[in-house]
Design a protein that fits this description.
single chain; mainly alpha; Na+/H+ antiporter like fold; Glutaredoxin; 3 domains; 7 strands; 6% strand; Thioredoxin_domain; Na/H_antiporter_dom_sf; sodium; ion transport; antiport
């Protein structure tokens, strides 16, 4: 079964969708790096000649001419940093970083994770000609590191990736500031003023509620072009725009309005109504989501691999490697990443946990921290960007050797760390990966045994809550899975109503029927009948089901006609709105929203993880007492 929630099908779960793209694109990037090395070693002259090819844009007397290398590094890479900013903003608005305290440790780790590698580089290159290239040793590569982590760390929890992503965003932001202040030549102030003004205009357009992308594109182009002319690397524009793009789940009221637009088109299929419905549907999605859907695949599968192809090519032979590994530039970069990054991430995690007496601590266990530190040593994109600005000739080639060597060594260390972790006994492995950080709760309000409809033991360590609609076909697909899960002795199941009356006209009446049955002590029996007969939910069908269950049919009928239990249903709908639920079925596991498929394999795995985390939480609480 490939059933997915409506929310999932229309708005992919943020981090999972991001990581699926990153893990797939990591292989493409590695292939591009290998291709660049082969090309450069077969014919270095043709490799360099291609990227020096001039590409010009001309409008009347205005002309912008740069070589292909610059168009990729300063043009296309702007979109890469846009995607980085978008994902960071999504985590701030929808992810774990909604709790701003959870931003403290990774952000401090990001800063220290840049300082220590730079200090290592400067110590090794002190007084030498390569010292001014210290910026090469700063920045982790977001796309490559996350992709390799997905490949090397099977079963690594999403929290590790969130932690890394936060570190990387701080990392990238500081690196771009360094590029602007240290590695930008002949800076002109007037174009910078124009760029800032363009950014202000963009924010004003957004504040005015304009959602059409065509209104933003010209302003973004002006901002990028002004930065390019100013001497500041224009990739800064991408990150700034990404960080200001709000992320939010579509509201139920907005979705109901769109349903109305679609019904209008269904009744009168004219081009005007088709356009209105299309625009209305697109506008329910956040700017963050719409931009990610457009640019993320292009960034991961085209732009970053193209950057790798254009920048990773160096001619390698025995004498050159001997020269490179005798160079302080190579060793400064290599040790900065392989030693400095893990030392910073691990040291910061231990230090802040100790200083704060555990109030600020990693959201993952020690294996997650260790793996985060080692994979943070994977550099490529920003490092090579700075290397191309700071070095030329042999020094540039030596810096590239250091960057590529660091990526290989860091990947090997990460694989080893998680390989060892996977050999631990189950309980120790769970603690090592997840730690004991309390989960953020998405469900509002929490389950109340006196108010909610509950199946299963009250003392179960895992609670599965479903917002459902008795006429929703996806709820019908999910029901056999839920019944199979209820065979677990340590699981309780809760049903909350969310009748989508705009698309399922009989859903509200069916919910009333379930509550009318509940008033006579037969909620779950009616619940099962309704989901088994989703195509027969007319009033006469419902009264027949009441008779089949031995209910007082007259009382049942009167309750339906008078909507005696509408307040109970409205309470569940308010709960759905407060919990950010807009489609059915939507599941919550121990108060945390479940994103993704709801087949038996996926839900069983999620419940197993929740059970392990609940056990760790109880143990941690007992220890603190």
């Amino acid at each position: 079964m490939s059933g997915r929630t409506i929310w999932k099908r229309n708005l992919a779960a943020p981090l999972r969708a991001f990581l699926r793209t990153e893990s797939g694109s990591a292989g493409v990037l590695v292939a591009a790096i290998v291709a660049a090395l082969l090309w450069a070693n077969i014919d270095l002259g043709s490799y360099e000649a291609v990227w020096r090819t001039q590409l010009s844009l001309r409008l009347g007397h205005l002309e912008l001419s740069r070589d292909l290398h610059t168009w990729i590094n300063s043009g296309l890479m702007t979109l890469f940093f846009l995607v980085v900013g978008l994902e960071a903003r999504r985590e701030f608005d929808l992810g774990d970083l909604r709790d701003r305290r959870r931003f403290v440790l990774p952000s401090v780790a990001g800063v220290i994770g840049m300082l220590i590698p730079v200090l290592i580089f400067l110590v090794i290159n002190h007084g030498g000609p390569g010292a001014h290239g210290w910026g090469v040793a700063m920045s982790t590569d977001t796309a490559l590191a996350l992709g390799l982590l997905a490949l090397l760390g099977r079963g690594v929890p999403d929290r590790v990736r969130i932690f890394l992503l936060t570190v990387f965003v701080v990392d990238d932001l500081i690196a771009l500031i360094v590029i602007a202040l240290v590695y930008s030549d002949d800076i002109k102030m007037m174009p910078i003023v124009v760029a800032v003004a363009a950014f202000a205009v963009m924010l004003a357009i957004r504040a005015a509620g304009v959602r059409r992308g065509s209104a933003y594109v010209p302003v973004a182009i002006v901002m990028w072009g002004a930065l390019l002319v100013s001497g500041v690397d224009p990739v800064v524009a991408g990150l700034a725009i990404g960080l200001t793009a709000f992320a939010y789940s579509p509201g139920r009221a907005e979705l109901e309005q769109v349903s109305g637009l679609f019904l209008s088109f269904r009744e009168q299929p004219t081009p005007k109504l088709a356009r209105t419905a299309s625009i209305g549907l697109a506008n329910t999605l956040s700017p963050n989501d719409r931009l990610q859907r457009i640019y993320h695949p292009w960034s991961s599968y085209v732009i970053v691999p193209l950057f790798g192809l254009a920048n990773a090519g160096i001619s390698i032979d025995g004498p050159f490697l001997a020269q490179a590994f005798a160079s302080p530039v190579t060793w400064g970069v290599l040790l900065g990443y392989v030693v400095g990054k893990p030392l910073a991430v691990i040291g910061t995690s231990v230090g802040l946990t100790w200083i704060s007496h555990g109030r600020i601590r990693p959201a993952v266990g020690w294996a997650g921290v260790l793996g985060s530190g080692t994979i943070a040593g994977v550099s490529f994109t920003v490092s090579l960007l700075i290397a191309s600005l700071a070095f030329t000739g042999d020094q540039l080639a030596e810096a590239k050797v250091g960057v590529l060597s660091a990526a290989i060594v860091s990947s090997a260390l990460t694989w080893t760390a998680f390989r060892v972790t996977n050999m631990l006994p189950k309980d120790k492995r769970t603690r090592a990966l997840f730690g004991d950080m309390t989960e953020l709760i998405d469900l509002i309000p929490d389950v109340d045994e006196k108010q909610d409809h509950v199946r299963g033991p009250a003392g179960a360590s895992v609670t599965l809550v479903q917002y459902g609609d008795f006429q929703c076909p996806y709820c019908g697909k999910a029901e056999p899975v839920v019944r199979q899960l209820l065979g677990h002795a340590d699981l309780r199941f809760v049903w909350r109503h969310l009748p989508l009356s705009d698309v399922h006209p009989q859903a509200r009446l069916a919910a009333e029927a379930a509550e009318a049955a509940a008033a006579q002590g037969k909620f779950w029996q009616m619940h099962d009948l309704l989901l088994d007969h989703q195509d027969k939910l007319n009033l006469s069908d419902l009264i027949k089901y009441a008779g089949d269950l031995g209910l007082d049919q007259k009382r049942f009928h009167d309750d339906l006609i008078s909507q005696a239990h509408s307040g109970r249903i409205e309470s569940d709908i308010d709960s759905a709105d407060n919990s950010g639920v807009s489609g059915t079925p939507t599941f919550f596991i121990n108060g945390r929203r479940h994103y993704g498929a709801y087949d038996i394999t996926t839900l069983t795995a999620a419940i197993r993880i929740a059970r392990a985390r609940a056990r760790l939480g109880r143990e941690a609480q007992a220890t603190r007492k």
